[in-house]
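Predict the 3D structure for this chain.
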Amino acid sequence: MFFKSLGIVAERPLPELLAYLFLLFILYSFGGWIVECIWTLITKRRLENRGFLFGPICPIYGVGSLLCVLFLAPLNLSWPATFFTMVILCDVIEYVTSVVLEKIYHVRWWDYTTGSLLHLNGRISLETSIGFGVGGIAILHLIQPIFTNFLAYFSPLTLLIVAIILAIIFIADIIFSTIAIANVTDRMTGGTIDLTAEIKKFSINYYKKASRLSRKIARSAFSQVEKAQKEAKRRVKNTFGPKDSSDK
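Done. Predicted structure below.
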């Protein structure tokens, strides 16, 4: 009954169940990334690779959407009740995430102080709250059925394999993103501006510089090896090569 809205048979083995839920998380995270990109294109007239990670996903959307499907769908709430419940749920998630990220990295990832009609400490806003409510209704009555039918085309084994591959990529992305962010946030300054794009740009440049340094070190190492080989050949030739007639 609890998983009926997901198209999941609860009696499935736990690995298959977790794989299914993880794939839903990835799908909703990717969808959230698309929404963020469209929103910045409309408001800022430019495309930005939004989110905490390098990959095209925003995990905060995946978490909120998955909680919506898991806990709200079985309740069969009315549309108004779903709207307000999603507003409260997602606002709590967004506010807590904003505080945690700022405590860890000492920088504000997003800020609604400017450009919002009503906000709470710049961490949540009226506009995004309305979007969360409308999004919750869309998730339960439109998007989740589409995802359920899409995943139903694949066998449990296929879903498990894909989930494992995506989980490895996801974990690697978290590790590399965290390393990069830890090395660039000292260049950031807090304030009432959205720093998500700037942090992402600095993080990407961090790995570009690291890559250039690695290539430079490699070229230097190869050059030294080549010189050593030439010197070795010269010594072998001088030692074992034919003697000049003057040496006799």
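Helices lie at 14-44, 59-72, 79-105, 126-152, 156-184, 196-240.
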